[in-house]
Specification:
Elements: H1 12-18, H2 27-33, H3 35-43, H4 48-62, H5 66-79, H6 84-96, H7 100-113, H8 118-130, H9 134-141, H10 148-164, H11 168-176, H12 184-198, H13 202-216, H14 220-232, H15 236-248, H16 254-264, H17 276-292, H18 298-311, H19 316-328, H20 332-340, H21 349-362, H22 366-379, H23 384-396, H24 400-411, H25 421-434, H26 438-451, H27 456-469, H28 473-486, H29 491-503, H30 507-520, H31 525-537, H32 541-552, H33 558-570, H34 572-586, E1 618-620, H35 627-635, H36 641-647, E2 663-665, H37 669-672
Antiparallel strand pairs: 1-2
Helix pairs in contact: 4-5, 5-6, 6-7, 7-8, 8-9, 8-10, 9-10, 10-11, 10-12, 10-17, 11-12, 12-13, 13-14, 14-15, 14-16, 15-16, 17-18, 18-19, 19-20, 19-21, 20-21, 21-22, 21-23, 22-23, 23-24, 24-25, 25-26, 26-27, 27-28, 27-29, 28-29, 29-30, 30-31, 31-32, 32-33, 33-34, 35-36
Length: about 675
């Protein structure tokens, strides 16, 4: 199986944690890790305005409001301009927010205080590269002895600084003599190829890029560079074959499609990079993209991508990667202007418009999102991505009938060989199922399964739906077992297997699977609710009430919450008896399961929980949560986070430091107001 470029740097996870260029590069982890005795000591004798600015800045970081945090740290720094911790954190935030020129004076002060301050040296080196002061860039970048990530960053950037001075042999020597982990090799060959091509050494460029391609031909950027260098060297057929192979082995990419069109038209493509600035930007983009795919690497990835953008402001791939990182951090409003910067002539412009629409919808502006997507569809009524994105917005907005119609239009535009076809049928099936059109939903799930027989999502959803309706129990259970084998660490799928056993009255097996699901996904209301029911059935009633109480506190759906409260008050036996009596009264035929039409049974409840209007009485803090985010989720207004502090004084001695797993009390909405 081919690996993508980020996957070849799996060791970067270790590098990012153990050998980061700066110990406090992580905006959140650094802020918490160094809190805070040393900072408190530094602030003891300071003016109250300094303490206020610092604490407000820490609160803004906790709320992921980095723009405000930057301003507040600058304000705090103005009160105590020689405070090294304030200098460092202000500098880091300025970099992460793209204010590179404002960060440079602070970088200079940091390296004066500590010449080994790697991130400061990196920023100064990038600044020198941008202004073509290549000798100065080499001085700043040439000192690296702090681990694999720092070494490859400074080494490759130093090579481009040498190339900027016309010293190609020196640049290639820097690359060649770099020592490091196995994943270095692709980066080394890739950059050696670009440096050789920049110097007009075509044969050497072809040799180096071929080595990179043979090691990592599934990577977009390696494939693109390979095709460009070969086409420019007159090896047109080989270039075409590489692009065709990439398209066959993936879902395709607009940049590859545009390059194919250019080469097929007989045009000589431009080089991937034209100068040292673009070469250095490519280094930062490659490493930033790799880090962005690693758990815990997003903060450092953001800084690398910001520096890449500083060197090459209109680089569409950098903009898309940075926008994606911002989206993943749920900073949807801030991602929009990033995506908007993608040039209109870029092959990625349409993708950027789709991401803007998704961000608008996630930011609570669905009307603007729909308007943007309808403009794209008006230009191309067969735009599958725009149709499915619009359908997804309708589906997540619970407008299931409208979503199904849009998915149907998308299906009318697909080609038989598109590997993503299963996904459209799958999503339409979900829309039909939620719209209570089970026969249509079942047909779509079966079609998706025909296209992708080993797709865990489809196996799980269809199997779960059958189980919940009492249909095809043996086959459904086998399907869910297969999904668990394919994705053993997916708590939702393991939950489905447990629920399958439960519905077949195999309660001991159900408990075993549901306990495993909880160990994987402890913060899901539905899984906790299911485990509570299973515990009750095997006589572990005290544990059952504990799980139901936990489910109650995890934002279950309103209907599920009502049933959970009833079980806590009266027990499962009474709730089931009352439900059966109500069904008998409403429809006597339902008293006898044999007389029920399975296709009209209740739709399967999802395995994920959704937020609801009624706030919970308690909530468990998750990783990445802040009091501001919790207030936003529960009350719809993050500014009400102060009410959470007031209600939990005994649990939150320091409101700026909250620990995942802590259960806090939530005042009701009217009380919070």
């Amino acid at each position: 199986m081919r690996r993508t470029l980020p996957s070849i740097v799996r060791p970067l996870r270790t590098a990012a944690v153990c050998f980061a260029l700066l110990a406090s590069t992580s905006l959140l982890a650094g802020a918490a890790a160094r809190a805070e005795p040393s900072v408190a000591e530094l602030l003891d004798d300071a003016m109250p305005t300094l303490s206020g600015s610092y604490l407000a800045a820490m609160g803004a970081i906790a709320a992921q409001d980095y723009d405000s945090a930057t301003t507040l740290f600058e304000e705090a720094l103005s009160q105590d301009p020689d405070n090294p911790i304030l200098i460092e954190r202000t500098f880091t935030l300025l970099l992460a927010n793209g204010h590179i020129d404002r960060a440079i004076p602070l970088a200079q002060r940091l390296v004066e205080l500590s010449p080994d301050m790697r991130m400061g040296q990196l920023a100064l080196g990038v600044k020198a590269l941008k202004t073509k002061n290549y000798a100065d860039a080499g001085k700043h970048l040439g000192k690296s002895d702090r681990g694999p990530l720092a070494n490859i960053s400074s080494g490759l950037l130093s090579a481009w600084a040498a190339q900027g001075q016309g010293q190609t042999d020196a640049a290639l020597k820097i690359v060649d003599t770099m020592q490091g982990p196995e994943w270095y090799s692709v980066f080394k060959n890739f950059n050696a190829a670009l440096i050789n091509e920049n110097a007009g050494r075509t044969d050497a460029a072809v040799k180096a890029i071929t080595a990179a391609y043979e090691a990592e031909g599934g990577s977009l950027r390696v494939t693109e560079a390979y095709a460009r260098i070969l086409a420019r060297a007159g090896k047109i057929d080989e270039a075409k074959q590489a692009l065709a192979s990439f398209t066959e082995n993936s879902v395709g990419h607009p940049i590859v499609a545009a390059l194919q069109k250019e080469i097929n038209a007989g045009k000589k493509p431009a080089p991937l990079v034209r100068n040292a600035q673009e070469g250095a930007a490519e280094v930062l983009y490659g490493l930033g993209s790799a880090l962005g795919g690693e758990n815990g690497g997003s903060d450092l990835a953001t800084i690398y991508l910001r520096l890449a953008l500083y060197l090459q402001p209109k680089n569409d791939l950098v903009l898309m990667a940075l926008g994606d990182l911002t989206q993943n951090a749920q900073r949807f409003e801030l991602s929009i202007p990033i995506f908007e910067q993608v040039p209109k002539a870029s092959p990625l412009r349409r993708n950027a418009d789709l991401q803007v629409a998704l961000s608008l919808n996630a930011a609570g502006k669905p009307d603007q999102a729909v308007k943007r997507l309808k403009r794209l569809i008006a230009v191309n009524p067969r735009d599958i991505d725009a149709l499915t994105t619009l359908a997804t917005i309708d589906r997540t907005g619970k407008r299931y009938a409208e979503a199904a119609k849009l998915y149907t239009k998308a299906i009318g535009s697909i080609t038989e060989d598109n590997p993503r076809n299963w996904l459209i049928y799958y999503f339409r099936g979900i829309a039909y199922e939620r719209a209570l059109e089970w026969p249509k939903a079942e047909a779509d799930f079966l079609k998706a399964l025909e296209i992708a027989p080993d797709e865990p999502q489809v196996l799980n959803y269809l199997g779960y739906s059958w189980i919940d309706r009492g249909l095809n129990l043996d086959r459904a259970t086998d399907m869910i077992k297969k999904a668990v084998e394919l994705r053993p660490n997916d708590g939702y799928i393991v939950d489905s297997l447990g629920w399958a056993y439960y519905k077949q009255s195999k309660f001991d097996e159900a408990v075993a699977q549901l306990e495993r699901a909880i160990s994987i996904k402890a913060d899901d209301a539905t899984i906790n609710d299911h485990l509570g029911d299973a515990y009750w059935k095997v006589g572990r009633k005290l544990e059952a009430t504990f799980q139901w109480a936990h489910a109650r506190d995890l934002n279950p759906e309103p209907a599920d919450r009502e049933r959970i409260l009833a079980k806590l008050a009266h027990g499962l036996d009474k709730v089931e008896a009352e439900e059966k009596a109500a069904q008998t009264k409403a429809d006597p035929a339902k008293a006898d399961p044999a007389k029920v039409d399975p296709s009209k049974a209740n739709s399967a409840s999802g395995t994920t929980a959704s937020p609801h209007a009624d706030g919970p009485s308690r909530i468990t803090i998750g990783a990445g949560d802040s009091l501001w985010k919790i207030a936003l989720k529960v009350y719809g207004d993050g500014e009400l986070y102060g009410r959470l502090i007031d209600a939990n004084r005994d649990k939150l001695p320091n409101p700026n430091v909250i620990v995942p797993g802590l259960v806090i009390d939530i005042p009701q909405f009217d009380t919070a107001q």
